[in-house]
Amino acid sequence: MLAFVYKNRNRVRKVAKEYRYLVWTAGVLTSLSMGAAAQDPAFSQFFANPLYMNPAMAGLEGATKIYLGYRNQWAGAVDPYSTYHASYDQYLDPLHGGIGFHVINDRQGGGIINTMSLDAIYAYHLKVSHELTVTGGFQLSVGHRNRKTSDLVLPSDILGTPGNTLYDYSVIYPDFAVGFGAFYKNFYGGIAAHHLMEPNPTIQDNPNSRLARKYTAHI
Fold first, then answer.
1. What is the C-alpha to C-alpha distance for residues 128 and 12, in angstroms, rounded to an integer?
2. At 23, phi and psi to the nearest 5?
3. Buried b (16+ CB within 10 A) or exposed e, 73-98
4. What is the span of the domain harbouring residue 181?
5. E strand or H helix at 89
6. Bridge partners of 175?
7. Edge-to-edge, what's the strand order for the sheet holding 65-73?
8. CA angle 29, 32, 38 (to 5 degrees)
9. pTM greater than the 0.85 cutoff
10. What is the domain count for the chain?
């Protein structure tokens, strides 16, 4: 194998350069198929997406709020990581708390892996005193992840050697999260736990394919 690559190194280098972005994407998918742990999209300006951070934030400011967001990671890449999200929340007196709805769509490799989550949130607000409010939130989500491999060019395709086979799939799964918050004068903080049941968004029966439980603390 090494002799073949060395003998045809110019051709291999040329082909690899032409398909470098596909090889890179294939490498990411191959690492996923071999058991790399999944993770959620991360936002640097997390305060601009409060429901994603902690379900206890629903209805906190009373008035109806609508958030829209877009993240384009590694914009110089051919197919960057793109994430879209939108949320709505408000406080309702009859429920003594806030309700919220959140949707997020994360696209990897130009849509080779696409993950969407629809979240419904309720947060109970307890006014302990004129200056202190404590909240507790619960989130019920329906997630969908699909993988399309038809546009992939794997290293084995370039070199003409046998390699791993990646399959298309589409999986729908339930998900749950809880959160708590405390708000005193102009200060606030909270904790949240997402993926309580650690759902599996793939077709693999592999513990590393599950969404690991995520803990968040903010102040």
1. 69
2. -65, -40
3. eeeeeebbbbbebebbbebeeeeebb
4. 2-218
5. strand 81-92
6. 141
7. 65-73, 81-92, 97-108, 113-127, 132-147, 169-184, 187-194, 214-218
8. 125
9. no
10. 1
